[in-house]
Write a structure and sequence with these properties.
Elements (H helix, E strand, L loop, with lengths): L1 E2 L2 H4 L2 H4 L2 E2 L11 H23 L1 H8 L1 H22 L14 H14 L14 H17 L11 H10 L1 H17 L5 H18 L22 H4 L3 E4 L1 H15 L7 E5 L5 H15 L5 E5 L12 H13 L3 H16 L2 E3 L13 H4 L1 H7 L4 E5 H8 L11 H4 L8 E6 L12 H8 L10 E6 L3
Parallel strand pairs: 3-9, 4-5, 4-7, 5-6, 7-8
Antiparallel strand pairs: 1-2, 8-9
The protein binds 1-O-phosphono-beta-D-fructofuranose and manganese (II) ion (MN).
Protein name: Sugar phosphate phosphatase
Pfam families: ARMT1-like_dom
Catalytic activity: beta-D-fructose 6-phosphate = dihydroxyacetone + D-glyceraldehyde 3-phosphate; beta-D-fructose 1-phosphate + H2O = D-fructose + phosphate; L-glutamyl-[protein] + S-adenosyl-L-methionine = [protein]-L-glutamate 5-O-methyl ester + S-adenosyl-L-homocysteine
């Protein structure tokens, strides 16, 4: 057990005096160790390759200054890769971005936690969540310091490739949505619930597609995403979708008398196919009147290779509008309109800090207050889950509510395929039973959860 860090958690330290230790790459052979050792250098190498490939574009746009900037960014990223591989201490950020101060304070704070046996804040000695987030922030710093090409997203091409390679699945989904919207008014409650459950499962399995886990390969959705849902049901380890349905349908029924709005927030994860599933779900929630207001929360900088930022959404919509399949272009036109008029896109810097979510009410008071206005917050993906439960070595049976450690802005649900060894809220014996038949169950993205917390 680890002592809670008062400086970071503030008053929370009083509520929770002991917490399980955080995941860390310290131990050779552990999953965090292997991911930092093998996967992150590959991600950096691919980022460097992306800059190389755009050399002539930088020259055409900016002349010699562009070429110099490309060289500078490459040398900063190579230096970063070297720091990582030789386990050098973390350096403070030197750019002038708004969050640099918070990052540097976080580094200082981790220094204050050090004791005799734990000598430095470095790539293999620090909490894994911090190490990974720090790497993506340093990649951003390398670009920021390389003006005039600071705008360049080193992961853009991989995100775009995922979209193109998932064309068939995207077409199937768009066509399904357009057809569903035509008949939605005539569905009875049971039929509507069936569609709700079906689309949410598509959203869940869409999270298999992240690119940080397999930097060398894109995982496109080639088969029909709808046809495989029944076969995948046994892999849903926690299924609280009924709570989500009860919450939204009861608000819809009572809305006339009591509630004026039902607000659903998506804390988004990956671009490409997964993003399409989010937009399909949002469109369905509004068309079915299960929700009246949708907020999307994206990342403000390139993050964990495939995470969605504002440009990725607008790029996707342009692609859909230009598609020569009617259902896709219709989705593109509708979603562009919704983003102008009703869907709200926000990208708070907190989402790209290394902090676990139980600190949000102190570190990002404004964002916490914003989320308190929601009626249901959907946290997409593995990284969001790690931040929700603090990336700690919890027992499988610890209740989700407890692992959230005081983070309860509104009813929330994690929708995540398992890619790291963090999981709470399982039935007694459930985790051990799966380990017997499938020892890799926590890391392959084969299993998923819909895990809800909140009052109904
Ligand atoms: O959040 P996502 O996109 O579902 O997954 C992100 C991820 O692949 O990146 C990290 C790689 O080590 C892990 O947190 C996780 O496995
Ligand atoms: Mn992601």
């Amino acid at each position: 057990m680890e002592e809670e860090e008062g400086a970071e958690a503030g008053p929370l330290a009083v509520v929770m005096d002991v917490l399980p230790p955080r995941m860390t790459p310290k131990e050779e052979g552990s999953l965090p160790y292997l991911r930092i050792k093998d996967q992150t250098p590959t991600i950096l190498t691919k980022a460097i390759d992306a800059l190389h490939r755009h050399k002539s574009e930088f020259f055409e746009k900016h002349g010699e200054v562009g070429t110099e900037a490309e060289k500078k960014a490459i040398s900063l990223l190579s230096k970063l890769r070297n720091e990582l591989q030789t386990d050098k201490p973390f350096l403070p950020l030197t750019d002038n971005c708004l969050d640099a101060d918070i990052w540097n304070k976080y580094l200082e704070y981790h220094h204050t936690l050090l004791n005799e046996n734990n000598k430095k804040i470095s790539w293999f000695q620090s909490p894994w969540l911090y190490v990974e987030c720090y790497m993506y922030r340093r990649i951003h710093e390398a670009l920021v310091l390389s003006s005039p090409i600071s705008y360049f997203d080193v992961f853009k091409e991989s995100k775009e490739r995922n979209f193109f390679e998932s064309q068939e699945a995207i077409k199937t989904l768009c066509s399904y949505l357009q057809d569903l919207k035509k008949r939605i008014e005539n569905l009875d409650e049971k039929q509507l619930k069936d569609e709700f459950l079906k689309l949410f499962q598509i959203v869940l399995w869409g999270n298999k597609c992240d690119l940080a886990l397999s930097p060398n390969q894109s995982i496109p959705q080639t088969s029909s995403p709808l046809a495989v849902l029944e076969d995948l049901k046994p892999y849903i380890l926690v299924n609280n979708l009924d709570y989500l349905w009860s919450l939204l349908i009861s608000r819809k029924k009572m809305r006339q008398e009591t509630f004026s709005i039902t607000r659903v927030d998506f804390i988004m994860d990956n671009a490409g196919f997964e993003l399409v599933t989010d937009l399909v779900m949002a469109d369905f929630l509004l068309a079915s009147k299960l929700a009246t207001e949708i907020h999307f929360h994206g990342k403000s900088i390139p993050w964990f290779v495939s995470d969605t930022n504002k440009n990725d959404i607008y790029w996707l919509i342009e692609q859909l509008k230009a598609a020569n399949t009617k259902c896709m272009s219709e989705c593109g036109i509708n979603w562009e309109y919704y983003l102008k008029h009703s869907w709200i896109y926000q990208d708070h810097m907190f989402w790209t800090l290394p902090h676990e979510y139980c600190t949000m009410s102190q570190v990002a008071t404004d964002l916490y207050a914003e989320l308190e206005k929601s009626n249901l917050i959907l946290f997409k993906g593995d990284l969001n889950y790690r931040k929700l439960v603090g990336d700690r070595k919890w027992d499988f049976t610890v209740p989700f509510h407890q692992a959230l450690n005081g983070f309860h802005p509104a009813p929330l649900c994690s929708i995540r395929t398992l890619k790291t060894e963090v999981q709470v809220g399982l039935a007694p014996g459930q985790g051990e039973e799966i380990t017997d038949t499938d020892p890799q169950w926590m890391t392959t993205g084969k299993y998923g959860i819909f895990q809800f917390d909140g009052a109904l």
